[in-house]
Write a structure and sequence with these properties.
The protein is α/β, with parallel strands linked by helices and about 190 residues long. The protein has helices spanning about 25-40, 55-70, 105-110, 115-120, 170-180; strands at about 1-5, 20-25, 45-50, 80-85, 90-95, 130-135, 145-155, 160-170. It has a single domain (about 1-180), classed as P-loop containing nucleotide triphosphate hydrolases (Rossmann fold, 3-Layer(aba) Sandwich). Strands 1-2-8-7-3-6-5-4 form an 8-stranded mixed beta sheet.
Length: about 190
């Protein structure tokens, strides 16, 4: 695994990292990085995941769940939109917004704009003591205020994934520092 820290203030490199660039060589390394995130979270975090189908988003969430002590199998909520896991030290809410749309057919089916309805539902748990991981988060980034943005992509001709991690907000920037200082995924 290759690891690069990008972004620092002039005061202290380790205390001000706001972006990480990673190359994860396997699904095991992706899951290990997820475990590093789960172990670094103290009381709450929002993790916004973006990337194409098959990039490893759910694999990363499985690692987060392992670190939290989730005992149930963690699977993609593509068709249910939300899977909840309450067996760990913090609740894990795993959302998949791949199928969220605001076209006329969807609006008629759900009785309104799906993103607006989703935002109302998110308010019930997103800012409480929990880890909320959102796949296909690009649909809702404007709603979030403090989150870890993780952009995952796969290499077409090689094994592995490129991962860009950015902290948006003070708490998430501290989370990047804690993930980096743990270095358990290397």
């Amino acid at each position: 695994m290759k690891f690069f820290a990008v972004g620092k203030s002039s005061t202290s490199f380790m205390s001000e990292i706001d972006k990480l660039e990673l190359v994860l060589s396997s699904a095991d390394k992706t899951k290990a990085f997820g475990r590093a995130i789960g172990q670094a979270v103290d009381e709450s975090a929002i993790v916004a995941l973006t990337g194409p189908l098959g990039a490893g988003k759910t694999c990363l969430v499985q690692g987060v769940g392992e670190a939290l002590g989730v005992t149930e199998p963690i699977v993609s909520p593509t068709f249910t939109m939300l899977n909840e896991y309450h067996s760990g030290r913090l609740p894990l809410y795993h959302l998949d917004l791949y199928r969220v749309a605001d076209d006329p057919v969807t609006q008629a089916a759900v009785g309104g704009r799906s993103l607006e309805l989703l935002r109302t539902e998110l308010d019930e748990f997103i800012y409480g003591p929990a880890v909320v991981v959102i796949e296909w988060a690009e649909h809702i980034l404007t709603y979030l205020t403090d989150y870890l943005l993780i952009e995952i992509d796969y290499f077409e001709n090689e094994q592995g994934r490129s991962v860009s991690v950015s902290g948006v907000g003070a708490k998430s920037i501290r989370l990047i520092r804690d993930i980096n200082s743990s270095a358990i995924y290397t």
